[in-house]
Amino acid sequence: MADNEKTYTLTNDETGVSIKLPVRESVQGPPAIDVSSLYKDAGVFTYDPGFMSTASCNSKITFIQGEVGILEYRGYPIEQLADGGDFLETAYLLLNGELPSQQELGDFNKLISRHTMLNETLKHFFGGFHYDAHPMAIMVGVVGSLSAFYHDSLDINDPDQRQVAAHRLIAKMPTIAAASYKHNIGEPIMYPRNDLSYCANLLHMMYATPCEDYELDPIAEKALNLLFILHADHEQNASTSTVRLAGSSLANPFACIAAGIASLWGPAHGGANEAVLDMLAMIGDVSQIDKYIAKAKDKDDGFRLMGFGHRVYKKYDPRAGIIRDVCHQVLERLADNDNPMFELAQRLEEIALNDEYFIERKLYPNVDFYSGIIYRALGIPNNMFTVMFAIARTVGWVAHWMEMMDDPRQKIGRPRQIYKGYPRRDYRPIGER
Ligand code: ACO
């Protein structure tokens, strides 16, 4: 059914005055009641903290049906894209709407690899951070600083220039991420190698040194490729909505992505992958699980089961299922199948999934519950987990930024509030207070 044919009627119970609100249909998923003219027509706002029931935009990029655990990029089920697909192929799909031909993918690979280097002066930025700075803090700073290199020269009203900015961001994220890791461990920053795949190049920049090449581990490359596909986009999550909101003021895209990285860092969002491993280390042993489950259920205790629960998924997060299966394969192939963290995580999952508290609230493992175990098995340190997530999610962020910028109806994002402060009062000079 076309937009506007269906309506909802909102009635003021005091005055009996009604207004009709048009319904906006989705291709899949629930329709939305369009309240954009409500304030103009009825003088009231809607109230929805945390956007529990609010759609903020139209989008053609990703579809999620959380009640049944469905995730699709441009209509393609995540399970199919993850099964042998390539991360840059997924990136092309998210950016352009269609899967690439062989020729298009080859050209796209070449295009991205041509943008992987950083301006040499950017190296000095890393030196400004203390050696033990969290790599996500470095990412926020350095990615934001790219706006200084591409500001006057970038016309965000030109779709071609927007695309170049998107390609630059996707290409430079691994270089910046690896450099923040090298800074952390005190090794020289490595230059990118354009003959390697996206993920192999990241591993090279993290693990090679000027004295020694990194011998590519195909298991690590494959596992990273899969994790990056699974993390590439997730519709209007907190960090993507942050990028859209920052971008809605027509800000520089590099600064907008830095805002997205900041939002991703929080433990309630992408920072959960690091928090899961910290939590497993804290639990330490299967015998302690009951104690921590009780803490997670105690409302007076701030402890939550990290990697559990999701705003949208009320069934198993499909990405978590894929990652759990791959965990088995990766650990087996790395001859690490006696991994106590993985055993602990599986036992914790089993106990939580059979506990009334978690069943009632439909709390299942999310994408971050098992991803850290794979990263850890690949030798990636805990504080780099969320950085890995940020590299992959940059594709989603720039795809959403471009979609928003292409939309002629796009407006600056400006929520309203219910004011609960003082009513008007008069200022008194300091001596009279
Ligand atoms: N452990 C214990 N209880 C939980 C958890 C958890 N991990 N998650 C939710 N709950 C409980 C809440 O206390 C609440 O209980 P109540 O109804 O008795 O008050 C109920 O479940 C609903 O939780 P909300 O916080 O209202 O749900 P919301 O949709 O706002 O939050 C979130 C979702 C932030 C992901 C939450 O589940 C959480 O904090 N999880 C742990 C952190 C995490 O893993 N984040 C990664 C999410 S995936 C991603 O962003 C990449």
TrEMBL record:
Keywords: Transferase, Tricarboxylic acid cycle
Recorded family membership: Belongs to the citrate synthase family.
Pathway assigned in UniProt: Carbohydrate metabolism; tricarboxylic acid cycle; isocitrate from oxaloacetate: step 1/2
Catalytic activity: oxaloacetate + acetyl-CoA + H2O = citrate + CoA + H(+)
PROSITE patterns associated with the record: CITRATE_SYNTHASE
Source organism, top-level taxon: Bacteria
InterPro entries: Citrate_synth-like_lrg_a-sub, Citrate_synth-like_sm_a-sub, Citrate_synthase, Citrate_synthase_AS, Citrate_synthase_bac-typ, Citrate_synthase_sf, Citrate_synthase_typ-I
Native source species: Candidatus Thiodiazotropha endoloripes
Lineage: Bacteria, Pseudomonadati, Pseudomonadota, Gammaproteobacteria, Chromatiales
SUPFAM superfamilies cross-referenced by the UniProt entry: Citrate synthase
Protein name, as recorded: Citrate synthase
Record's GO cellular component terms: cytoplasm
Pfam families assigned to the protein according to its UniProt record, in alphabetical order: Citrate_synt
UniProt GO BP: tricarboxylic acid cycle
One Gene Ontology molecular-function label: citrate synthase activity
